[in-house]
Amino acid sequence: MNTGEKPVPSQHGLLTTVAYKFGQSTACYALEGSVAIAGALVQWLRDNLGLFKNSAEIEELARGVEDNGGVYFVPAFSGLYAPYWNNNARGVIAGLTRYANRSHIARAVLEATAFQTRDVVRAMEKDSGIPFEILRVDGGMVVNDLLMQFQADILDREVVRPAMKETTALGAAYAAGLATGWIRNTEELRAAWAADKCWHPALDSAHREQICTMWQRAVGRSLDWLE
């Protein structure tokens, strides 16, 4: 989250970092929330449990059920990062019953990324005092429409996927272009940006609070698993 020309020391488990600095202009700072396991959890489901052969298949598998069936997956394989910073946490699958099946597990895996993102977003809002209106997403997981809709639902915010999904690589190319003069200014960059698809929240507030409360309970089970 870009916080402007003054660094904002985090009080809610985030990292304060330099976002960028172009030439002699003033540096801009950001709040960063690092999450250890997101897309890697899909790979774990593929490679370690063999529930599908291709990572893209998880969306179809997760769509086989209407919801997570009460199953929550906290992927603290190497501890929990922002905003918890608990090295002794370990992975937990909570809420299992005989009703749960492979589709519920797949859905819980996708939802884990959205829940972790919500944790970071809420911490950013508290640190900065600036409410989010839109979450812009990028990377490999954003091709999953089911995940993107769930992300919008639990954030209660619009989620926007750009036409160019690999934003990190694009940003490095843009920075090089600005440095060499191939790109004249940031206004050119803004003009080049385009949205691919938007998702709007479609979940009632009571249900949202219920599932987010259950996620926090599952996180609580994972904390300090190791002594």
Task: Give a quick set of tags describing it.
single chain, 227 residues, three-stranded mixed beta sheet
Structure description:
The protein is of the alpha+beta class. It is built from seven helices and eight strands; from the N terminus they run βββααββαβαβααβα. The strands form three sheets. It has a three-stranded antiparallel β-sheet. It has a three-stranded mixed β-sheet with strand order 6-7-8, covered by helices on one side. A two-stranded antiparallel sheet has the order 4-5. The model has no long low-confidence stretch (mean pLDDT 94).
- Estimated share of beta-strand residues: 5-15%
Cα-to-Cα separation, first versus last residue: 34 Å
Percent of residues in helices comes to 40-55%
Q: Largest sheet, described in full?
A: 3 strands, antiparallel
Question: How many DSSP-defined strands?
Answer: 8
Q: What's the order of the H and E elements?
A: EEEHHEEHEHEHHEH
Note poorly predicted spans. none
The helix-and-strand class reads alpha+beta
State mean pLDDT (0 to 100 scale). Answer: 94
| H/I helix tally | 7
Query: Compute the gyration radius: what is it?
Result: 19 Å
Strand order of the largest sheet: 1-3-2
Q: What coarse outline follows from CA principal-axis ratios? A: globular
Explain the layout of strands and helices.
Layout (H helix, E strand, L loop, with lengths): L1 E3 L10 E6 L7 E5 L6 H9 L9 H6 L9 E3 L17 E3 L7 H27 L5 E3 L8 H11 L2 E5 L4 H14 L5 H7 L2 E5 L5 H18 L5
